[in-house]
Design a protein that fits this description.
By secondary structure, this protein is an alpha/beta fold. The chain is 31% helix and 20% strand. The strands form 4 sheets. Strands 7-5-2-9-1-10-13-17-18 form a 9-stranded mixed sheet, sandwiched between helices. Strands 11, 12, 14, 15 and 16 form a 5-stranded mixed sheet that branches.
């Protein structure tokens, strides 16, 4: 079984835990897009691990973890993360990096930080890790790839093309300092040593072998469908494709390799950074969800905006994300709630128009009001429940209603942060 795991909201849905659980049956885990702007937290036996670039499947012995060509890698951050994992006793001998992955250079983080700090109107709310500028250069065909680090001739020729363009932009547009060729080559020599233990130059043969041997492959997504650069709340999005289709372009495998697409969603919705959020709660209920759910970013520490479950964006995610099943996390956050709301549609306050399908023009979202239905809470702890049939009746009714609204089966229900706090249907 080859599975893609993607976030089906705005990221931070608990993908790492679901990935960690499904890795048990996988031989290979592939991260196909994004960079260290993603943050995954996994709790194993009460011990917390925070991942940003490295697939969380590395916690298992014998699982090959591969960073595909669609990823962008900030070398200094990668070194810190791998050093920390090694210090925690994690074996990284099965960690592989595609030579086609893109490198985030210092000027990428500088530009990202400059834009975020000087922009007032239309601020995106990036993590300032240089992700967007790295993808920009990739698409402009002036980016550096991991493989360039290991050929001085190639690197020199590319820099003769890249640096005149890059320095002109750095100086004239951003007022930043230019880089000399010698400086970049020196940096790249250091980066080559950071990546050397992990670069997989025979990645084609490796993937072909996995295919021939019918290995079980898990494609680990970062961010979420609503942050997709093509289908998300543009321009308040990431710079890659977190949808299932992105797993193909970023991994090296075609779509015929995928058997299942599991979307991960919280029993409510959160968002980090700027952008529209129709069901956002700015009152004491939103603060209550934030506190109980410990809703603070794993990468930035920023508090996450919280709101009720939104079936409108979930139906949209199911379509463009290619979802075939759903894993619902953090339902236990509602254990002490008297009632729980679910958004079933939007209403345009200007003309009363009702939207059941997601309106992609995010600039009119300020006029949208959520239409809610209210469900009674279950007023008991779910954390120790192991079987679906043992859930309180109101919890089962809530889950059934979500299935009806989204038209996708919920196959996994998470009732706590630990591995064992999971119900499989």
């Amino acid at each position: 079984m080859n599975r893609v795991i993607i976030g089906s909201q705005w990221g931070d849905e608990g993908k790492a835990k679901i990935t960690d659980l499904l890795t048990v049956n996988a031989d290979v885990v592939i991260r196909s897009q994004g960079g260290c702007n993603a943050g995954h937290t996994v709790v194993v036996d009460g011990k917390t691990f925070k991942f940003h670039l490295v697939p969380s499947g590395i916690l298992y012995d014998g699982k090959v973890c591969f960073l595909g060509a669609g990823t962008v890698i900030l070398p200094e951050f990668f070194k810190k993360e791998t050093d920390d994992l090694i210090e925690q006793g994690i074996d990284l001998s099965n960690l592989k990096i595609s030579p086609l992955a893109s490198i985030t250079m210092p000027y990428h983080t500088e530009v990202d930080g400059f834009v975020e700090s000087t922009t007032t109107k239309g601020k995106i709310g990036t993590t300032k890790k240089g992700i967007g500028p790295t993808y920009t250069d990739k698409m402009a065909r002036i980016g550096l790839k991991i493989q360039d680090l290991y050929s001085l001739e190639t690197l020199s020729e590319k820099l003769d093309v890249i640096l005149p363009q890059k320095n002109k932009v750095l100086e004239k547009v951003y007022g930043l300092q230019p880089y000399t060729k010698d400086c970049i080559i020196s940096l790249c020599e250091m980066y080559a040593e950071i990546f050397r233990p992990y670069v997989c130059f025979n990645w084609q043969e490796m993937l072909e072998t996995f295919k021939k041997q019918n290995k079980n492959i898990l494609f680990e997504g970062a961010q979420g469908v609503m942050l997709d650069v093509d289908y998300g709340t543009y321009p308040y999005v990431t710079s890659s494709n977190p949808i299932a289709g992105g797993a193909c372009t970023g991994s090296g495998y075609g779509p015929c390799m995928i058997d299942e697409v599991a979307g991960v969603a919280k029993a409510y919705v959160t968002r980090v950074g700027e952008g529209p959020f129709v069901t956002e709660l700015t009152d004491e209920i939103g603060k209550r969800i934030q506190d109980i759910g410990h809703e603070f970013g794993a990468t930035t520490g920023r508090p996450r905006r919280c709101g009720w479950f939104d079936a409108v964006i979930m139906r949209y995610s199911a379509l463009v994300g290619g979802l075939t099943t759903l894993a619902l996390t953090k339902i236990d956050v509602f254990d002490d709630f008297d009632e729980i709301k679910v958004c079933t549609a939007y209403k345009d306050s200007r003309n009363g128009k009702i939207y059941y399908s997601y309106p992609t023009d995010v600039y009119m979202h300020k006029y949208l009001e959520p239409i809610y239905e209210t469900h009674p809470g279950w007023k008991t702890s779910l954390s120790g429940i192991k079987k679906y049939e043992d859930l309180p009746e109101n919890a089962k009714k809530y889950l059934s209603r979500l299935e009806e609204l989204v038209n996708i089966p919920i196959s996994i229900v998470s009732v706590g942060p630990d591995r064992e706090q999971t119900i499989f249907r």
